[in-house]
Specification:
Length: 759
């Protein structure tokens, strides 16, 4: 570049639009998008450490996609190449790749290739880029306003991390405007500009989350408003209204906003939210969506989501669509609104999905023959007996009679489940009664056929499969607890999470899947647990791996501060945990630490098994075989286990869990209780765990040690208890062996789910 080129670039930069001049140059200048570049977030850590892998920034216009790429260019040691997909082709890509190879070969320097509007590249152009992204020749940064999962090559998407940028909040837009008015180098800091609060509110409101729109309007207002006698440029409400007059609605009829908006409309109808449905309908009409497309979706909805709960819904919607075709716009909007209101207020049923269950049966089951009595009797009734035995329903009362209609292999299968809303509620009882009669008729016929019951799936093989399913439902229960925790947590992709008790990683790995571009931290209680988690984490890419801490809950502020290298601890969007409080001795202190780690608006979700409600072992057997006095002492001795105020596992109940967090100032605390029942197989190993007299270091005393009074701690509840002797304990063990050995018993557990918010 010669002196003239440099001067020309400086002149271009000086004359650039305000939005271009005010583009932030560092992360500290960047406003908004805290969910992806806030302290401790994955993207911020990657940029600061100069360890960025291929990424795609996706979001509405004016949210900072290109700006983030420019900030990366300013902070990285890698060579930076920028292309615009609208203006570039395969030739430009090849030239960029050659430069990248030279930089890598001669200087060992990485190359970042930024492609703006990456979705504009056609398939051939994207395919030309793919191998070089895959082998690491370039690190790709793509920017797009379209959903990359639809508009970008799947192979490129799979090799990149997607960061979704959101429309800027109103406070962010105000900060952008004030920053511009104060900047003397690139903004209007050298001028005397008086922007009234009312005018700023108007600019921010109409800009609809787009920083570029605010800056463009501000530039127009400043440049076209003459100063007053004192040299002050007064930007009043009138000036603001002239500078930005109509809200820009993000709506591309062929793109992501189109599908997102119609999805929001349908889901609002499904949720019977009349106001939301009208809002999304109005947004589509305002943006110029074809009303026929909206009617098509409402006609589908009438069959899929209203169905037989209100058979009139389909008629009303089709009539409204026909009326629109006859009337057109603008009056046709009345018919759009009428169909929308009817569907939103109609009772709902998705029972028509029964068809797809039947379709799956056809696809998966062995081909079944039509029963003889249902076959066509017009051709071969005499020769093959087709149609014989068919009962003509109109010849019977209520025009119905019980008989076999399904093929033999599908007898008893149920596809349709009537809902409990509207018209279906009226026919539900009728359908159920007829099914019961149909089933009775089928079973009565089977009993007269030799071998039919055995062929239906009973016998040793079926029993073994049943036993296997019964004994494996602990995993299903853990899955249920995990799913309920995340249903309460409402995790978003960009959330920063902390698992307060990582354990086996049940919640941690699910958090990694649900918050792929936010960040996941996990607390392991000991080095062994941390090592196991780290070993599993090695299967993930570096940026996907959770940050694993080792220590106690009360040590978290120090552990986090040491990890991020700063005195202040991070604040998290969501804290989750399973059985965090089970072994904690000082629960109030731990609760204070947990509450402090939540950011304002953050959520805490815990799933705690309440050991106080654990089944008592003496309830599993019939103690009447023991002397009455001994049976009473067994019950009393076992109850003392759950009355020890010094035992942190057992000295609390569900109300205590809520009280300890209320004391921290957390708000909207909700606790729900669920009882989960597993099947416990009682073998010799399990009995030994209960009745053994030796335990390893750090292990809790056994049931037998408690009954013998061998536990060192004594409480007021244990005073006066006559403990068992060795002979009595042996007699009790024999009773357990006689009644339980080889049995499978139900084992209920009480789980308390806590949801709390930080104001």
């Amino acid at each position: 570049m010669d002196l003239f080129d440099h001067a020309r670039e400086q002149q271009i930069e000086k004359e650039a639009p305000l939005a271009a001049r005010m583009r932030p140059r560092t992360l500290d200048e960047f406003i908004g998008q805290e969910h992806i570049i806030g302290p401790g977030r994955l993207l911020r850590r990657a940029i600061q450490a100069d360890q960025l892998s291929s990424v795609i920034f996706y979001g509405p216009p004016g949210t900072g996609k290109t700006t983030l790429a420019r900030i990366i260019a300013n902070t990285t040691h890698a060579h930076f190449i920028a292309l615009n997909a609208v203006l570039s082709g395969v030739k430009d890509i090849r030239e960029a790749i050659e430069v990248a190879r030279d930089k890598r070969g001669m200087f060992g320097q990485k190359t970042i290739l930024f492609i703006d509007e990456v979705h504009r590249f056609n398939k051939a152009q994207q395919d030309a880029l793919l191998p070089h992204v895959e082998n690491g020749t370039v690190i790709l940064i793509g920017a797009t306003t379209e959903n990359p999962y639809f508009e970008v090559n799947k192979a490129l998407v799979s090799r990149s991390r997607i960061f979704q940028l959101r429309s800027l909040a109103e406070d962010d837009l105000r900060a952008v405007a004030r920053q511009t008015l104060a900047d003397k180098e690139r903004g209007y800091g050298q001028l005397k500009v008086n922007l009234t609060d009312e005018a700023l509110d108007h600019l921010v409101n109409v800009a609809n989350g787009d920083a570029r729109a605010v800056l463009n309007a501000l530039e127009l207002a400043v440049e076209t408003t003459p100063p007053d006698a004192y040299g002050i440029i007064n930007l009043t409400m009138e000036v603001a209204e002239e500078s930005i007059q109509r809200r820009a609605v993000l709506y591309d009829k062929d793109g992501d906003a189109h599908f997102d908006t119609i999805s929001a409309f349908i889901k609002s109808l499904r949720g019977s939210d009349v106001d939301a449905a009208l809002y999304w309908l109005a947004k589509m009409v305002y943006a110029g969506e074809d009303p026929r497309f909206i009617f098509r979706r409402m006609i589908i909805f009438a069959g899929e989501d209203v169905g037989l709960a209100d058979p009139n819904a389909l008629r009303v919607t089709i009539a409204a669509a026909q009326a629109y075709d006859y009337v057109g716009l603008p009056e046709g909007r009345f018919h759009l609104a009428e169909a929308c209101l009817y569907l939103a207020t109609a009772p709902k049923s998705n029972s028509t999905f029964a068809f797809f269950d039947a379709l799956a049966a056809v696809e998966q089951e062995r081909e079944a023959d039509v029963p003889d009595h249902l076959r066509d009797a017009n051709r071969d009734a005499e020769g093959l007996g087709h149609g014989q035995g068919y009962l003509y329903p109109h010849a019977y009362r209520d025009h119905w009679v019980a008989q076999q209609y399904l093929p033999e292999a599908l007898q008893g299968r149920v596809f349709y489940q009537p809902g409990d809303q509207g018209y279906e509620a009226e026919i539900r009882q009728q359908v159920s009664r007829r099914r019961e009669e149909q089933l009775a008729a089928m079973l009565e016929a089977e009993e007269s056929l030799a071998g039919q019951v055995e062929a239906a799936g009973k016998g040793p093989a079926a029993q073994n499969r049943w036993l296997q399913r019964t004994l494996s439902n602990v995993g299903q229960q853990l899955g249920r607890i995990r799913d309920r925790v995340f249903a309460l947590a409402k995790v978003e992709r960009h959330d920063l999470l902390l698992d307060l008790n990582a354990g086996t990683g049940l919640l941690t790995w699910e958090a990694v899947r649900r918050a792929p571009v936010g960040g996941v931290w996990a607390l392991a209680g000991n080095p062994q647990t941390a090592a196991a988690l780290e070993q599993q984490a090695r299967n993930l890419e570096n940026l996907e791996q959770p940050v694993i801490l080792t220590g106690a809950v009360t040590e978290l502020p120090q552990l986090i501060a040491a990890s991020v290298g700063q005195a202040d601890s991070l604040s998290y969007d969501i804290l989750i945990g399973r059985n965090v409080f089970t072994q904690l001795a000082d629960k109030p202190a731990a609760a204070q630490v947990i509450a402090h780690l939540l950011k304002p608006g953050g959520r805490l979700v815990l799933a705690e098994i309440v050991p106080h409600h654990t089944p008592r072992l003496h309830q599993l057997v019939d103690l009447s075989g023991l002397p009455a006095e001994l049976a009473a002492r067994v019950q009393t001795a076992e109850e003392t286990i759950y009355s020890n105020p010094n035992d942190p596992m057992l000295n609390w109940d569900t109300p205590d869990l809520g009280a300890v967090f209320e004391a921290t100032g957390l708000a909207k605390i909700e606790i729900t209780i669920e009882t989960l029942t597993s099947e416990l197989a009682i073998g010799a190993e399990q009995l030994e765990r209960w009745f053994g007299l030796t335990t390893g270091p750090g292990r809790r005393p056994t049931f037998a040690q408690h009954l013998l009074g061998a536990v060192s701690e004594t409480t007021s509840a244990a005073q006066g208890v006559v403990w068992l002797n060795q002979a009595e304990l042996a007699e009790l063990r024999r009773l357990f062996e006689r009644q339980l050995l080889g049995q499978v018993v139900p084992w209920p557990s009480t789980v308390a789910y806590l949801l709390a918010h930080k104001a």
